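Structure (tokenized):
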């Protein structure tokens, strides 16, 4: 049997309830991609830059997709997104903002800062299941992925 490493999904979410619901929905939809979770904006930056406890890329692989909440402690989701888009080796990393805010200013700012998609967290669990199924299908199967770490210069 071949050992295929599936791309990792990074969930940046501070609400323990939302994390638990996401894990449950991920399992129910049979999305096999490994899930890493960080609970604040500073931890997201540390994870993505491979610093501190996240230095081991075998244990904490660079994700193929980041699901980013906006309302986070220590550094907001928008600050994380702005930081990420300034990093030469990470700026192409797909980021889906997944938040409870429907505020048009939040939506606009997220896209201005380089979000690839903006989703409002569904209230009903069945709707969350559908969203995760669609996320997995679109981002891990249908979507053509960029070279995350292109050679700089040229």
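Design, position by position:
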């Amino acid at each position: 049997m071949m050992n295929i490493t599936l791309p990792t999904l990074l969930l940046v979410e501070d609400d323990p309830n939302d994390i638990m619901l996401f894990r449950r929905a991920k399992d129910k939809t049979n999305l096999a991609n490994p899930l890493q979770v960080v609970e604040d904006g500073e931890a997201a930056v540390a994870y993505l830059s491979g610093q501190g406890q996240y230095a081991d890329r075998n244990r904490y692989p660079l994700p193929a997709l980041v699901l980013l909440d906006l309302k986070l402690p220590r550094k907001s989701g928008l600050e994380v997104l702005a930081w990420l888009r300034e990093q030469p080796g990470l700026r192409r990393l797909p980021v889906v903002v997944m938040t409870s805010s429907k505020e048009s200013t939040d939506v606009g700012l997220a896209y201005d800062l380089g979000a690839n998609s903006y989703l409002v967290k569904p209230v009903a669990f069945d709707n969350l299941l559908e969203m995760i199924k669609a996320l997995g299908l679109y981002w891990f199967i249908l979507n053509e992925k960029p070279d995350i770490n292109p050679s700089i210069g040229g």
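Reviewer-requested clarification: The first helix runs from residue 16 to 28. The mean pLDDT is 91.
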